């Protein structure tokens, strides 16, 4: 069981907006540690999608955005496209456990 | 361009050992933390260990502490993961990634599959 909690799945239709949450605690997200998000397609390595809560690496669509508040963070995907169908993971450092944490992953299905 | 290439995976019997390597290129290896992550079949990502640029500071997940050991050779731009006392639950794809600590993992290797089975 991950210390960072994500919904196992979300779904949406093309063009819709979806939000994926990542809930932590006072020793990780709530302690001020930044949240990073990764996108993974089946059979491939994860790819950095957002870093330091809301920053996009070069080449990542502006349809992906992020935010953080308190002990939670969110990944928003607007204008949903079929190519967005993937599994998304959040990541943060935990100062109590002195470990890097991943959320359990959220599988996005585009209906 | 940044490249990370893992090797050393394969089939090993329970109780056995394996050493994974990650060859880095396209950046100044000795400037970066490096991290190992694994993913069991059909499961999520699991952080294992990271090492400081100098190699002097290591952090390990509880589940591998005492069994897995991360190390690096900055002269050859290589990252290692020495794994021992392997069990079937260690069957996974093992990824190396650049950076660590609270920083984003900005580049990942393609992964190497380790299968622990009798």
Characteristics:
heterodimer, A: 111 residues, mainly beta, B: mainly beta, six-stranded mixed sheet, four-stranded antiparallel sheet, 10 strands, 0% helix
Write a compact overview of the structure shown.
The complex is a heterodimer of chains A (111) and B (118). Chain A has no helices and 9 strands. With 111 residues, chain A is mainly β.
Structure description:
- By secondary structure, chain A is mostly beta strands.
- Helix content of chain A is 0%, strand content 43%.
- In chain A, the strands form 2 sheets. In chain A, strands 1, 3, 4, 7, 8 and 9 form a 6-stranded mixed sheet that branches.
- Chain A is globular.
- Chain B has 118 residues and is mainly β.
- Helices cover 0% and strands 47% of the residues of chain B.
- Chain B contains no helices and 10 strands.
- Chain B has strands at residues 3-7, 11-12, 18-25, 34-39, 45-51, 58-60, 68-73, 78-83, 92-98, 112-116.
- A 6-stranded mixed sheet of chain B has the order 2-10-9-4-5-6, with no helix packed on it. In chain B, strands 1-3-8-7 form a 4-stranded antiparallel sheet, with no helix packed on it.
- The radius of gyration of chain B is 13 Å and the shape is globular.
- Classes of the chains: A mainly beta (111), B mainly beta (118).
- The A-B interface holds A 2, 33-34, 36, 38, 40, 44-48, 51-52, 57, 87, 89, 91-93, 98-105 and B 35, 37, 44-47, 50, 59, 61-62, 95, 100-102, 104-111.
Residue windows where pLDDT falls under 50 for at least 5 positions of chain B: none
Shape call of chain A? globular
The whole-angstrom Rg of chain B is 13 Å
Strand content of chain A: 35-45%
Q: Helices and strands of chain A, in N-to-C order?
A: EEEEEEEEE
**Nearest-integer average pLDDT of chain B:** 95
Would you count the extended β strands of chain A for me?
Answer: 9
Spatial ordering of strands, largest sheet of chain B: 2-10-9-4-5-6
Rounded radius of gyration of chain A (Å) = 13 Å
> What is the assembly state of the chains in this entry?
heterodimer
Which term fits the overall shape of chain B? Answer: globular
Termini Cα gap of chain A = 28 Å
**Number of helical runs of chain A?**
0
Give a count of the beta strands of chain B, DSSP E runs of length 2 or more: 10
Which structural class do the helices and strands of chain B define? mainly beta
Order of helices and strands of chain B: EEEEEEEEEE
How would you characterize the largest beta sheet of chain B?
6 strands, mixed
Strand residue content of chain B:
over 45%
Largest interface: A-B, 27 and 22 residues
